[in-house]
Design brief:
There is one protein chain. Helices cover about 40% and strands about 15% of the residues. It is globular, with a radius of gyration of 18 Å. The chain has about 325 residues and is of the alpha/beta class. The relative contact order is 0.15. It is built from eleven helices and 13 strands. Helix 5 packs parallel to helix 6 and helix 7 crosses helix 8. Bound molecules: flavin mononucleotide (FMN). Flavin mononucleotide binds next to strand 6, strand 11 and helix 10.
Length: about 325
Amino acid sequence: MLYSLVRPFLFSQDAEKAHQLSLASLDKLGCLLPTPNLSSNPTQVMGITFPNRVGLAAGLDKNGAHIAALGKLGFGFLEVGTVTPKPQAGNPKPRLFRVPEHHGIINRMGFNNDGVDALIANVKRSRGDYAGVLGINIGKNKDTPNEKANDDYCLALQKVYPHADYITANISSPNTVGLRALQSADAIKSLIVALKEAQQALAKTHGYKPIAIKIAPDLSDEAIVELAAIFSEYAVDGVIATNTTIDKSAIAGAKYAGEEGGLSGLPVREQSTHVIRTLAQALDDSIPIIGVGGIMSADDAVEKLAAGARLVQLYSGLVYRGPELVKQAVAKTAN
Ligand SMILES: Cc1cc2nc3c(=O)[nH]c(=O)nc-3n(C[C@H](O)[C@H](O)[C@H](O)COP(=O)(O)O)c2cc1C
């Protein structure tokens, strides 16, 4: 209700400015909001008890700087990041565009973040203020060549591991040149082996923390089935499907349709659900899927679960529908 009054003002601003403004306001308002009862529908996934099935997707809180305030919105889990080993500025602005007539967003942020050490400091400060599950999403720096990508992921993993409930390796952002090439069979195998080795070593001192792999929606069915076989063979703990799409055909003719970057929101919904369904059939329930992409209503969240996801995440829906969407999705996805 309140958000529908605020939204026209936010949408009159530059998209990135509105994003900063929303987070700053939420930080201020957050302390006034009551702490929600998150545990409406506890669900075991990847060996973790999630208080409910609805999480915040990565990219909104890249530095983990707003955990306490975002936690007040009722999410059962928050995924912060993508964080890279070193800080980096991301792409030049403008790099974030709303496509309101399609309820979509195009972004080419390019992993702008303050680096893994800054994220950890933020997480340490605010972790106690949030009772839900915390995921930390890791990536590689722009200037790290793909041949050295594993080093970046392992370095970030080592640093975030003690502070996360689960870790996501993001190999599907379209905004870091070459990143999606890490989804090819050879590259992904070598990355998973490296991450699993590091995970085994870290588990001895910090306990076992699951690692999920986040994939793109722009994969052929054959590629999805091939990836599923690799995920099973190497015992990946979870798959997050999907990231943004580079396919802009759903918004052809719109003002920003020609902008470079990944498209999210309603235009990616069907594609993302198709990937989830194809992946779920190929995995035959052996590895849990976290479904994300175009959840703009509580029914969309249910659709992702029906396609085979065990949990869902959203980002663009929050921009278009506001915090009410979280409450509605949590209620509708409860058993
Ligand atoms: C502005 C913006 C920035 C994003 N940044 C990241 C990121 O850093 N890491 C990541 O894994 N996904 C990132 N994403 C992708 C989202 O996590 C999500 O996978 C995608 O937007 C589809 O979900 P949605 O339709 O609910 O937004 C970003 C999305 C948006 C809109």
